[in-house]
Design brief:
Elements: E1 6-12, H1 16-24, H2 26-29, E2 35-36, E3 44-49, E4 53-63, E5 67-77, E6 90-98, E7 101-109, H3 118-139
Antiparallel strand pairs: 1-7, 2-3, 3-4, 4-5, 5-6, 6-7
Length: 147
């Protein structure tokens, strides 16, 4: 069986600049209570969802209107036995102009089906990406965690 990282894509009417700005507004689509900064290379931020999820990320690549990469420095997922499964994984946001549209490809590199958290984490990412980041891109208003 081939290992396949979590991946999803969107094709939107907005410009690469608008898509990039939405991605960089992590508080606007993932969590209003994000700690730290998420705007430029080497910025670090952490996300907490109750007692279930903690992760700390570092921006390792920021190419305006094209690509953003976060490296997961630390994680604690209390709903699985290997609580640090995300350590060393990367979130990769790739932005590509497609005529008058923009394609956003998102990959959580290292979030593989062999991980215990894969199903729950895939469901979580699908929620935040489809029901929050995509809304932020297309309407200007996301649906981030408020806790």
């Amino acid at each position: 069986m081939e290992n396949k990282d979590f991946n999803c894509s969107f094709l939107v009417e907005q410009t690469p600049q608008q898509v990039f700005e939405a991605i960089m507004n992590v508080r606007g689509w993932w969590s209003e209570k994000l700690e730290g900064n998420s705007l430029k290379i080497d910025d670090e931020f952490s996300y907490t969802h109750g007692s279930l999820h903690y992760s700390k990320h570092k921006l390792t690549e920021v190419i305006p209107y094209k690509r953003v990469v976060w490296l997961t420095l630390e994680s604690k997922l209390t709903f699985v036995s290997q609580e640090e499964e995300w350590n060393g994984t990367r979130m990769i946001f790739e932005i590509v102009a497609k005529g008058v549209r923009t394609k956003l490809n998102i990959t959580h590199e290292g979030l593989l089906p062999s991980l215990q958290c894969f199903k729950d984490c895939t469901n979580g990412w699908t929620y935040y990406l489809q029901n929050s980041l995509l809304l932020l891109i297309t309407t200007g208003k996301g649906n981030p965690d408020k806790q």
